[in-house]
Fold this sequence. Notes:
Elements lengths: L1 H9 L9 E4 L13 E4 L11 H4 L12 H5 L2 H20 L3 E4 L1 E11 L5 E13 L4 H5 L5 H6 L9 H5 L2 H10 L9 H7 L4 E4 L23 E2 L2 E2 L12 H11 L37 H4 L2
Amino acid sequence: MIAQAVEQLEHAPAGYPRPLRRLQSSSSNGSWSRSQCTEARAFAALDEPLSDSALERRDLNADRRLDVAQALGRAPERALARDCLQRRQRLQRGQQTGVGVYASVSRARMTQRNPDGTVLNFGGWQQVSRLGNPLFTEGLVAFVDKDRFNRTPASQDAQFAKYARNPELATLINAVYGTKFVATGRTDLEKIFIPEVLRVATTTDPVRLAGQAGFNRLGFIGGDRTSGVSGGWPNGRRFGDDVVDIALTAIASGPSYTTITKVGDNIEKNDVPYHQVFPYLATPHSGVNNSKDSGL
Length: 296
């Protein structure tokens, strides 16, 4: 079941940006033809790592690979260049059916705290923490590389793929509990975690929320699918998704998933129900009136 769901995720219609187009020069005189608006493959849904260039901010002007002086003298060619660029922009921005996101925290490289209480920052900003998918930094990246990972943009995540392919967490669980989980060659985990961005398919029907009929905290492992794709993580992340249990079960069951071994932390639900409307979070406990303080 997991193997089927992973396969569906990998080839989901909710993919990522379709092929981009760019101008390429192929003649010595700098002339252009419509056939020279060639396709450049971007990246697929989940069956390949996202390319570095796809994750970096693109300078569209850099794709105008033609001699400026010649282009200024050829109005039809300028129109062709503009048409190709516009089509590239539509393909890059207008036809995306999925997104991959991560959050980061940055601080000033140098901070000066003066006796009068004023604070001066120098040297620009340095990323010091990041998060996309749950558990990758905490459970898979080795301690020696955690800080370096937190400083690194997602466009450079290929260097950390070894931690997904050879999950240290599987090795530790095997050592403690005597299990035989596969701890090397885990390309299935690499497809989920590299690059370390939270992927969301945007062409599915609305997913089920915690508390609604059909919702399952284990997502596709528990049969909770929407439009053939997992209703929860690793397709986005909903309140109520038990990401720890999903990740541990994937580590224990892959890469073949012929036998599903459910592993978890024995916490199956939030102590307070989630709401069905924005902001969806459960009502927080009172910070003033607490049962342990009242003696109840």
